């Protein structure tokens, strides 16, 4: 089922532009797999897929949770199956489940902060999952987070699995963010992510959180543009993090992730900003200056890496 779940995840993540085809594809996959696709002992990925489909096909107040683009492009008629796996009353709410995912990120971050023994971290995470009745399959290879390149700085296998689990949770939040409204996502997801990031002492976790914020920022801009309040607030928060947390980090992945998150909220490309060849509106001058100053203090080697990374 791992391959099937990975395909379903990618279909939903990349299929926002053609929701009729996307929902049809997911229903076909579900029909072919039968009850195994949405087993009673659902893991986080299965639950995410089910909730996203139910949200997209909702005919009630859940519509207000969807982005304006999705609301405008939802199909008028949804796929119908003789025995539809998604035609069930779910006891798990979307907002409750997303809150649980954020709880997991906070727990992992706090356990890393307070315990240097990664074996203990994983042992303490596992019982917490059991209370929700949901399981996370973080085997080798992990079906979602294998997209994330784990740092190659000598960490042991156990530490890699722990980061693998953390990255998988961020991937699930990214999928929800792809479809949820900008305002709802900012108030219920981004605000909590920023708090977790501020207190996180693990460089790898910080980079993963910044990558997630970058993706959510792109979704926001695609949906409402650069000047909506949630976009502006996120841009300002990231600017503060650049002056505090990121400026004190010598970890290049963290710095690149932070710059990438800031760039996702600016209407000018990286090469234009650092070359001073484009004029930024007054609203974005502060962030543009921060990026330029960051780039100037890099070594020639790291400048080359940055240019290649953002090209």
Describe, in plain words, how this protein is organized in 3D.
This protein has 311 residues and is an all-alpha fold. The protein has helices at residues 2-14, 19-33, 44-56, 68-73, 94-114, 118-130, 157-179, 182-199, 203-224, 229-246, 252-263, 270-275, 285-296, 300-309. It has a domain at 2-91. It has 14 helices and no strands. α7 runs parallel beside α9 (203-224), α8 (182-199) packs antiparallel against α9 and α8 (182-199) packs parallel to α10. It is globular. The chain starts with a helix and ends with a helix. The model is unreliable at 116-160 (pLDDT under 50). This is Os01g0768700 protein. It comes from Oryza sativa subsp. japonica.
Topology readout:
Layout: H1 2-14, H2 19-33, H3 44-56, H4 68-73, H5 94-114, H6 118-130, H7 157-179, H8 182-199, H9 203-224, H10 229-246, H11 252-263, H12 270-275, H13 285-296, H14 300-309
Helix pairs in contact: 1-2, 1-3, 3-7, 5-6, 5-7, 5-8, 7-9, 8-9, 8-10, 9-11, 10-11
Helix content: 55-70%
List the total number of helices.
14
Instruction: List the quaternary state of the chains.
Output: single chain
Largest sheet: none
Name a few traits of the molecule.
311 residues; mainly alpha; 65% helix
